[in-house]
Amino acid sequence: MSQDARGDAGTDKRPGDLRRTGMSLKSDREWDYELDRIIDAIEERDAATVGLQFPEGLKRRAPKVADDLRQLTDGVRFLISGQPCYGACDLDTELMRRTDVFVHFGHSPMKESDKIIYVPLFSNVDPFPIMEEALEELPDVDTAGDSDVDDRPAVGLVTTAQHMNKFGEMHEWLEERGYAVETRRGDERLTHEGQVLGCNYASADVDAETVLYVGGGKFHPLGLAMEHPDKHVVIADPVNNVVDVADTEKFIKQRYGAVHRAMDADSWGVLYCTKIGQGRWEMATEIVENNENAYLITMDEITPDRLRNFGCDAYVNTGCPRITTDDGPQFHKPMLTPGEYEIAVGNEPLDSLEFDTFHGTW
Amino acid sequence: MSQDARGDAGTDKRPGDLRRTGMSLKSDREWDYELDRIIDAIEERDAATVGLQFPEGLKRRAPKVADDLRQLTDGVRFLISGQPCYGACDLDTELMRRTDVFVHFGHSPMKESDKIIYVPLFSNVDPFPIMEEALEELPDVDTAGDSDVDDRPAVGLVTTAQHMNKFGEMHEWLEERGYAVETRRGDERLTHEGQVLGCNYASADVDAETVLYVGGGKFHPLGLAMEHPDKHVVIADPVNNVVDVADTEKFIKQRYGAVHRAMDADSWGVLYCTKIGQGRWEMATEIVENNENAYLITMDEITPDRLRNFGCDAYVNTGCPRITTDDGPQFHKPMLTPGEYEIAVGNEPLDSLEFDTFHGTW
Question: Residue ranges of region Disordered (chains A, B) (predicted)?
């Protein structure tokens, strides 16, 4: 399908084209900030200072949420985190230390704590129209005959924290259309049954050749397909209004390109991320201890600008895998996952390349 | 003097033009990393982990310094800070917590601590050729007569941490040329007699109408001239090989421009910087408590990207003043110093505008 806008487009729609879908009306999303639950926690703990942390896309709402909370309280000081935030693994621990109650918006809990209130902020986008379109990519259901329940085609179902509130409905919806829906919770890094993170696809380890991913973007289904190469991963993206099938070929080529460019490196920067849920200390120190040309560099945000000042020939990122695999091409030097590093230095064969994932909390 | 390159330039030199000065040979500077002192501290404290922090311009040297230290020790783990660093006020406290000894390179001590080794890294650029040129901008000395010592013209002398190792020689050099050289230490934020920081010019509060600043860049002398508007500030810049006189007019216009643009703001982001030596908590909270349209935002690095996600109409920076006054124009919304904020909201008159400075340590 052409990527160009076509004024006379028929049934073809480009990814993100929300015209004639009814969905464009929903672009002005409303969120439930669960103010009552926050106020309860403030009163229960008699909090004098409260920290508020939002992911990047929702930071703009912070002043209004602070206004609402100020109206509902008396003499409580609200502090808004200005640190970048990309997940429940990425809590502003500095602000947490400074406050009596710390509210983390936009992600589901990674680890319960007495001080942290997680407010997940579920999307109110309707996933069913795009799931309807995605049926074409799922196994055929024998609609004519009255086949046995045991013969129904199996389909795995996963989604992101944002759409988790509709997971039960999605499950039922697929069952009604004749599928045996396979789901599981994954490991303790994941809060919910069927939930995936950019760094954890354990919930897709189900007894089904096809997995339906309902959610925004291509990064999650790509990771899922890399982590489970035997599975057919269908994308129903209700945010960009597009159906697709995860294709790992381009991704794998990009990763091998980075590995090959790093093979000549004389010096390695080994990045240890100090964010609370993104540190893999053993992994980072083991690399440095076994390579005299490797240097341990610690930081919270891992950005191209920050690495530009160091003169290493290549980098290994033991922090968030998304930085390596999604932002990787933005760095001026090759940036590898720990597994890719082992290939580049010759400790592991080329065909051992796989997606970098995180398990456990902290 | 024209800012354009002139192939047939005679005696005119553009700032930064190091041709025919002999100084271009010195561009490959050597630094003394004081490895012996670091090794002594490691042995004395029987340290297992050592943190190394370099300012931005010297981060490239970090792997080589780590190599040298590894050769001189046995079984010690060296961690390099990847956090941006812009001064002795800007210690990587996260890395400090994780290490037994913490070495901060490139700045003079702001506050002594048992764990921190400060290695100042003095420049080996020769300041005297450019000081010779700067004599033209200093008060005339009566070289013909044999005037009394008490009649010698007074000149204040200040420099940055980088050139502090030559301060005594500079002092003598000026005295030999007939000046009464006035210097003082300033307050406890400053380590040395005659030292200035971008945020502190207390050492220039001397009994002399003319102050000679020896050092790189225009930011320090500009701050000095703003902080001491009654003084004539002469710049002898041995790094860029240029003599100049600090002119605050353009700077003041830029600041008033920001203040005026901020006067219509309906919402204010009040930035509290969490860096150890850059926090002004009382100042930040006082603003928020007296303005219901002000929101307290906490972060370590204050960058245009980080503020872009917040929807405030204007910002007040209670952290490093250089961010406001030097980087200010890069932000998408007006960014004011705390003093400028008071003008913008009408609490102080327009003519109260002054340079934002920091006093004390933490």
Answer: 1-22
